[in-house]
Amino acid sequence: MSVELSIENGLALIKLNRPKALNALSFTILGELDAAIDQVSQAIAKGTARGLIFTGEGEKSFCAGADITELMGRPVLHEHEGARIGQAVFSKIASLNIPSVAVIHGYAFGGGLELALACTFRVATARAKMGLPEVKLGLIPGYGGTQRLPRLIGEGRALDIIMSGRTVEAEEAERIGLVNRIVADGDPVAIGQEYLAPYLKHSLAALDFARQAILRGMNTTLDEGLRIERDLSTLAYQTADAKEGMNAFVEKRTAQFKDH
After folding, report:
1. Could you say which residues of the chain have pLDDT below 70?
2. Among the options 8, 59, 79, 134, which is catalytic?
3. Contacts of 253 by beta carbon, 8 Å cutoff, 6+ apart
């Protein structure tokens, strides 16, 4: 298997394990990734996964993108279906109701960056390099890059990166908000665990409501966004975690959240 999943101490870890190919995405790997995400969803439902870390095996690459040789010479309907599959898998990642982080410790190009864009957060080591270089092949991103990147860093910057196909270094990626933080080299799993730790102190229900309010509100008017916030805020008050949080504040103790 080129996609490895493990769950320990409330954290799920998905590792792309194809280092000789720089962890490039084939359709087989997309299928394995899809199955792994389904297992994570089941673990969330059971309460055994509260966060998700993505890494790539080896020191060179998080994920170097699609397996280009697999994409050549296919009928147009197969190309369209391939894009649909990639988008569907990454949308599953984006819709998980737990925080996820991509630890980019080398190359993250094409589909690899699109995978990272589907995560809640992205962190990168100083040597990380990323981009959407499809235009250099006469193509455009097909797994969500043209949609998620401008929502993250703005239209102008996204147009520059996608239409030039250039490589973005870690320092620029942090400056423009493509990654949330530059971290020191180290074990990617430990990096992911350390990054997610502050978020996992909170109620998963509250984190999910907050993320829904932001993401849904960004795609509508301010007035509609305020309505979404109002509704989700009201729902948050109905949770057991909200009652526990407010009681703990009044009683000057640490809240013990149960994620419901």
Report:
1. none
2. 134
3. none
